[in-house]
User: Fold this.
Amino acid sequence: MLRIHVRRTQRLVRLVWHVMVGAGISYLVLWPLNTMGRDAQRPRQRVIVRWWMAKTCRILNLRIRKEGVMNTTPTLFVANHISWLDIPCLTAALDAVCVSKHEVRRWPVVGGMAAQAGTVFIQRGAHAASGVADQMARNLKDKKSVVFFPEGTSTSGATVRNFHPRLYQAAIHAQAMVQAVAISYPHPAGVNPVAPYINDDNLLRHLWVLLKEPSVEVNLTFCPPVPAESGRRALAVDTRSQILSALKKTPE
Assistant:
């Protein structure tokens, strides 16, 4: 018990300091870069945010293992969604613009850093999704990869929900490749019980439980990329099937 308490306290101190550093970066570095013009600032900001997210993963001792070959051309990456931890893990692994729910924009430090790094925030509704797809397509045409979660919400990890096809239209417009990324948190119980962030879970409560864990294994499996030629519904079905196969799960 004492060891757990010491571990949690040490990590909490490191994390609080890291958040304070992130706040300083947001206001002293990222915000000034935002005044330099879009083409000049986005690559630099993504590098800074990727560093900050990677350090967050190290503080939480998220042990990320990558399998498969990551596509290197501008790509629409799609992933299953289990936890808020998916975001720092993918951000650390990918040089890509993220698509995130609008609520993340209001998260302290993280929301501001994400916004200034070019994150596309999506609100509920078909009209909003159409506008987001257009923004995603512009990023892909500008030679920037994009990553999003087509389930639309996080799950317990026991299964993978149907993928919503609307945002796949971005890859079709930009004639970009699509690559599925299977995320898992392996554990003797199947899915690590500390990983899922679902229903009415609270971020601080979830983080408090996470801080006591010795480590959390995270697997990112990159499936073979596919061209955006078959239509968005077929792409949604195909990439979900790839992820189910990588996770060794059967479709419902």
Notes: Residues 2-33 form the longest helix (32 residues).
